[in-house]
Amino acid sequence: MTATEQRSGTATERAAADTTEQATGTSGADTPAGLLRAMLRIRRFEEKCAELYSATKIRGFLHLCIGEEAVAVGVVGALAAEDAVVSTYREHGHALARGVPMTAIMAEMFGRSTGCSGGRGGSMHLFDAGRRFYGGNAIVAGGLPVAVGLALADHLTGSPAVTACLFGDGAFAEGEWHESANLAALWHLPVLFCCENNRYAMGTSLAREHAQTDLAARAASYGMVSWAVDGMDVTQVREATTKALAYVRDSGQPCFLELRTYRFRAHSMYDPDRYRDPAEIEQWKRSDPIPALTEQLVQRGQVTTADVEQWEREIGQEIAAAVAAADAAPLEPVEDLTRHLTSTGPGEGSAS
Amino acid sequence: MSPRTATATHRRGRKASAPPAPTATATTYREALREAHREAMRRDPRVFLMGEDVGRYGGAFAVSLGLLEEFGEDRVRDTPLSEAAFTGAGIGAAMRGMRPVVEIMTVNFSLLALDQVLNNAATLRHMSGGQLSVPLVIRMTTGAGRQLAAQHSHSLEGWYAHIPGLRVLAPATLEDARGMLWPALQDPDPVVIFEHGSLYNLSGHLPADPGPVDIERAAVRRSGTDVTLVAFGGTLGKALTAAESLAAQGISAEVVDLRVLRPLDDATILESVARTHRLVVVDEAWRTGSLAAEVSARVAEQAFFELDAHVERVGAVEVPVPYAQHLEEATLPQVPGIVEAARRAVGEDG
Q1: Is B83 a catalytic residue?
Q2: Which ranges of A233-300 does DSSP label H, i.e. alpha helix?
């Protein structure tokens, strides 16, 4: 993204317009200020989630993407409304960037009926069919074959949609990835494979899980166009994604992006993080995508510290409202437990 | 049991009340399945078939022979040996509005796709709070009897029938082979169809334009008054043969074909037990944790006081299915074993 693509209005106005809850989260969130605000929104949301986890408002597994926001905003925000997203269990950022309402996400983590999965999914299984956000898959690489199938349907019906599939470096070791990559390349399917390489499969480092750690090079061996991208730089991620999407749409072929990033927090709230050198984490924090871009934009005069302060206030209010709404939201009635098991409603699952 | 024997017993099993209509045509189970696919693809452009060797080869069991030539490569798709990927692709395509039929060569191979079936196909609707629908049909071969040894011969229908969110079917007759696919494709939820390998050559007659069959109910294939034999898929023919043998010994056996393995049609089973008061469940799977165990438990829970004898189960010996013919035969439920179990139930033996 270049400075010439800026729009009129103050940075704050532009960014606020870009990142409030929209149908897809895509419209206009492409100004540098918009990207920055979107990342900040995810960061603050997740910090709140960690706090609420400690307060036992959120339970189960909670996987935070703090440090990886540039991938969520750079990739997911570049998609068109008709495109699909298939994600993983570390997907709060992806869902927010897609425009899934923060209130629905928070309510889901509170296990409420107003949650985006009716309280049946929780943090790992956020869904929003209307926005073509297909989860929230907690089986590492389990979403990839489904993404290939969504793209197969588009291929068969002549739809211009692209299916973006986000997964991690851990998934790259799974057979389902290799099967899916081969199938998408073999059948010329419009899939954008986005490998969010944060260098750890839970507690196992890249070098301890892969004989060849250059994942982009390995993906290329399937005959796919394949690029490695600095996943800590949102503008680079956005540019690469935009190019990749154009390529997939024009050619009907899959494309692979390796987004090299890092999570600053532990794998989950259960993880004591014994396997990483604190110095390594500190080193990566120097590439934190949010302060780096803030500084850059302030220096260029594209954003002021007052803008950032105002975003913080707005985001804080949005989060507070989401928490309050989740707290007040009803629980799904236990009588509805077997609802949605099949299309015919309750009954089948209650057979005893 | 040879296919010819199976044919004969199946004809008798249909109560001999419906002799072949004048327009009936001779067919086989395999051809009936093929015709079901042909009809589905003609009627609905969203239907397509994919799996290993379904196209050029014509299907590992020749079910899809000729379909590639008729419908083209978009709709009859040869896949790589990637069970997880092509099953998952079926799930994704179904979610996006297509009506895929995924063929998996055998139930043993389907274990490579079990993640997709359980964690996605059966789960997505509920886990998403009802937002997603997976109208996918998965077909696969099951069962032993062809000396294919321990990695091509198992009967794991019960594993699939364990999973909430799936409908599981076991066509054991020509009518069901011909008629189950279309209603399965109309189901907004995933349906798994098990074809027992010994049935493909089953022959008989079908009307020229047979209608669809229900995919809800079990069927009484032979009426009787003394003992109920519950069977499905590959064991139906054996149960019907056993019923013939029992009739010659003066014991009137009713044979219930489960047809639908999930959700189980309790009512038909319970009604039969209420008539006969004795139950033998025949299942080619290992007994432990099997469908036979489930049927037995349901009858014990819901019709305990109808029973005049304890429930008998005839299942496979709990070993991996061996290659040698005599060992394989000894592993599987056979007609004499079913007859003995029924005689015990009515108090004639043991």
Answers
A1: yes
A2: 234-251, 278-285, 289-300
